[in-house]
Design a protein that fits this description.
This protein is mainly α. The protein contains 9 helices and no strands. Helix 2 (16-37) packs across helix 6, helix 3 (42-57) packs antiparallel against helix 4 (71-82) and helix 3 crosses helix 5. The radius of gyration is 17 Å and the shape is globular.
């Protein structure tokens, strides 16, 4: 994001969308290249497919309710167990696959980046003892509901708002505050109610079938 913002200043008001997609490609492609080069067993691939399917099921049936979905919950819980790299890949794949049902568009790579970063950062958090504190995870999920919305607001401003000024970004972020709050609340409630049993189930499956 810092590279993106610096590039926008250098471009002085031109080609924002082209530059933003270039930054997204630079962010996404190295992660998938590393993922392809990694030696993985069939069990891990099947487990990842199931995780992605769960994330898609947590979004598609609830699409009629604005910003209420369980995909972020699946991303966070699975990333704690799988780690940052697989958390990034599974999170971004949930966006891509769910949009096969809901519609692909210029928003797709931004959703892939947002959910991928959610998985990446949660995977890093999962390497600490903070993952064992329920309230830390609830606050983390709530904050990511807002951060996800801000990433998508950035795309909206770059694509549709003219002229681009600091006030333009502020108004774009403010206009979606209620929807971002819905996402944040859904994350917090779902993690409060389901984080501990789901994480226990994930860890048990990974240990039982020697997935990692």
């Amino acid at each position: 994001m810092l590279v993106l913002l610096a590039g926008m200043l250098l471009l002085k008001g031109h080609h924002f969308v082209i530059f933003s997609f270039a930054c997204l490609a630079c962010s996404l492609l190295p992660a998938y290249w590393h993922f392809e080069k990694r030696q993985m067993g069939t069990r891990l691939l099947v487990f990842l497919a199931v995780i992605v399917a769960l994330g898609v099921m947590g979004r598609v049936p609830l699409a009629a309710i604005p910003n209420v979905q369980l995909t972020s919950f699946v991303v966070i819980v699975s990333a704690v167990s799988l780690g940052p790299e697989l958390g990034f890949v599974s999170g971004s794949m949930m966006a891509l696959v769910s949009n096969l049902f809901l519609g692909q568009g210029p928003w797709t790579p931004w959703q892939m980046l947002a959910w991928g970063l959610m998985g990446l950062t949660t995977g890093l958090l999962g390497r600490t003892q903070l993952k064992n504190n329920l309230w830390v995870m609830v606050v983390w999920g709530t904050l990511w509901g807002l951060w996800f919305g801000w990433i998508m607001d950035l795309w909206y401003a770059l694509a549709y708002v003219r002229p681009l000024r600091p006030a333009s970004f502020f108004l774009s972020f403010a206009a979606s505050l209620m929807f971002d709050a819905m996402h944040a609340a859904t994350n917090g409630i779902s993690l409060l109610l389901l984080y501990q049993p789901w994480r226990k189930l994930m860890d048990r499956l990974i240990t039982k079938y020697n997935i990692l």
